[in-house]
# Entry
Amino acid sequence: MREYTDRIRDIAKRLLEEGTVDVFIGYRQGTVPLMNEPVLVNDPGKVDVLYWDCNCGLNLCNYLTGRTDRIGILANGCNSRNIVTHIVENQIKREQLHIVGVPCTGMIDHRAVRRAAGEKEILEFEQHGDSFTVKGKGFEKTFQVRDTLRDNCRRCLHRNPVISDEMVADEVDEQQGIDPYEDVKEIEEMGSDEKWAYFSRLIAPCTRCYACRNACPLCYCPTCFVDESRPQWVGKSVDPVDTMTFHLLRAYHCAGRCTDCGACERVCPVDIPVRKFTSKLNKDALDLFNWEAGLNLDVRPALDVYKVDDYNDFVR
# Structure
C-alpha cells in the first residue's frame, strides 16, 4: 500500500506545516513484522515514520481521550466510528479534529499468518496490493490478504469512514450478503448450561493481564472497576469466578458502544476470542433498538435514550 503511505505522509506534512493541527496520529512499522504500532508526530520533518499496510489493527482513538490540542488522525471504518463515539460521549470535540479517512479492505490476522508459516520466525513482511510476502530463515511465502483477514474484518459492513475531513483515496465497495452475527446465532441456540460451559472454556486461558481492556478505545473510565478497592467489585486472582466477572462486566460496559474494531482480540497474548461477548451485545442492540454504534454524531446511543413508549414492561 505504498500509495496510501505516500499520501498519508503528504497530508500529515501539510497539516503540520500549515498549523492546522498540533499533532498527527497514525501508524508506523513495528519493531517486529506484522505488528504496526500507533505513533504521534508533531514535527513535519518526521512524517516519514508514518506507514500504512494491512497490519494497522490497533485503534487510534485510545490517544484522543481528554486531549485539548488540535489533532490530525487517520480513520478507517472502525476508527471513524469510535471517533464519533468519543465526540458523542464528550471525550473530544469535533472542532479539535482533522480526520483523514482511509478506505479499508481489512487487516490480516498475524496469528493465522504465523500458523500458515509453520510457526517459523517471520523476519520480513511486504505487501503488494492484494497480496503479501513473509520471509524468514530458509523460507518465503506469499498469501492473499483476503485469505488471512481477521474475523471482524471478514464480517465488517462499514469499511469506509463514516466521518472525515479529507480522504486518502476513493471509497471502496462495502461487503454485501454477509451475516456479521452468524456465530452469535449458533451460541444463542445452545441451552443455558451449554452456554455457560462454552464461555467458561473460552476464558479458561485468561491470565487477567487486562490487555483487552487497555487496547479498547471505549475503556476510559478514570478508575476501572477491576482496580476499585472500596468497594472491591472483583477479586485480583485468576479464579474462574473473578475472571468471568471481569469479562462479563467489561462487555456490558461496551454495550451499545462497541464498533467491533477487534483491538481486544489482536492484543490478547493467549488468543482468546473475547469478541464473542461484545458481538452478542452488538446483535442485541441492533435487534432491540435498531442501533449500531458510531454511525451518527446527531443521535444519542441506544442506552442513553428514554422513550415513554418503550415496549418493556418495567418502564412506567
